Amino acid sequence: MIIRVAWGKFNAPSLMSSSGPIVVIDALRMSATVIAAIHLGMEVIPVASSKAALALKSNRVLTAGERNGRKIDGLDLGNSPSKLLQGKKTGFSHLALTTTNGIPALLAVANHSAAVLIGSPLNISALAGWIVDRSSGSLSLLLAGQQGDKNQEDAMTASLLLARLGVPIPKALPSPVSPTKLKDMFMETEAAQRLISLGYSRDVLLCSSIDRFSIVPRLHRKDCALVLSC
Hints:
The protein is an alpha/beta fold. It is built from ten helices and ten strands. The protein has a four-stranded parallel beta sheet, sandwiched between helices. Strands 3-6-4-5 form a four-stranded mixed beta sheet, sandwiched between helices. Helix 2 runs parallel beside helix 4 and helix 9 runs antiparallel to helix 10 (about 200-205). About 45% of the residues are buried.
């Protein structure tokens, strides 16, 4: 299998010529928020700004988002998968979501000719199974990173996925972390420490949990809009 890896929205165009799926990984926390919302029965509408999210707000559309880890004023929720699950939001059909890194990366590959998927430790086995069943022999990984810089948690998640697929790990990625050590390794990253300082330790623990869900979010065009659903 041919593996391509790119970091952030600005490097995303380098993946657009590939014929296989692109997996977008924002391990802390966009990927987990998308999976949590779909688990609760919602489709996720990725939007570039809080203004765009608020324009969609209704009694059927929940709004969520963050900038630099902090909840955006005026939106219903931050980018917190644990709070989303804890609240057990019912009656909403959609979650309009905007984030600092993950959503911009996702939108940068929205016009890819093949599938665009969301990856996380939370769905790693289901995602690997999807790729094995449907991939054409090439796979691209778009790691959201941190405002253009590389980060450890996205790289660890990518290596874990490739290990599940049984393919060689590119030199650009670290050696796979043992699943039993993943939570501890996540907790030590710079991004995790920042989230913990902001009161989101539950998010870090959730985002580093392996195979909690069998959901594989995929980007679709529906009624002229982009949505993430299974």
